[in-house]
Automatic annotation (TrEMBL):
GO CC entries: cytosol
Record InterPro entries: HAD-like_hydrolase_sf, HAD-like_sf, HAD-SF_hydro_IA, HAD_sf, PGP-like_dom2
Highest taxon listed in the record's lineage: Bacteria
Statement: the UniProt record of this protein carries the keyword Amino-acid biosynthesis: no
Gene Ontology terms describing biological process: DNA repair
Species this protein is from: Kocuria sediminis
Name of the protein in its database record: HAD-IA family hydrolase
Coiled-coil positions: none
Amino acid sequence: MFDVDGTLIDSSYLHTVAWWHAFNQAGHDVPMHRIHRLIGMGSEQLIDELLPADRDTDEDDAIGAAHGALFSVHWPGLKPTRGATELLRRCTDAGLVVVLASSSNVTEVAAMREVLGSDDVLTAVTTATDAERSKPAPDIFAAALEAGDLRPEHAIVVGDARWDVESAWQLGLDAVCVTSGGISETELREAGAVAVYADPHALLEDFENSPLGRLAAGR
């Protein structure tokens, strides 16, 4: 089960800039470094973490919508992370079921799927609409398990943020992480990642020895 933003698509910093502009437009001065560390968390949780508790929460939906509009400007320039498309195909060739599990909305995920060009190897795709709560709640991965007809003991999460690891852990899932989203190996390992790679290409290069390769081999 693959997270998308930062894991398969090089978009984490674009989301950071979009959130920064959205907060500024609403009159909130939020430093970029604080935003970046929360990318991968659901929009509602991210806003709650970054803005004062005594704010007018009626503005939250508008801030989220502004982020979406600002991020959409970058869609034409989106690119996969290094080796992302090849890794998805390698997983399928090895007999693994591949499910995308993103906290982004359907429209954003559709734009990223087009960039990946890998729909033919996907068993299922889950988005924010499939989860009542977003990461770090486990709902999106629970939905992905169901969509892929998978059991937790026969599944692995691949992500780029501690929220992916924490969400996976709540379901008894191991998480393999990549640092292509800008989060350090140290932080990801401290969160509980069972393995960390620089990017999907590095994971692909070590596929046979990786947790994905061991899962495919039934080890």
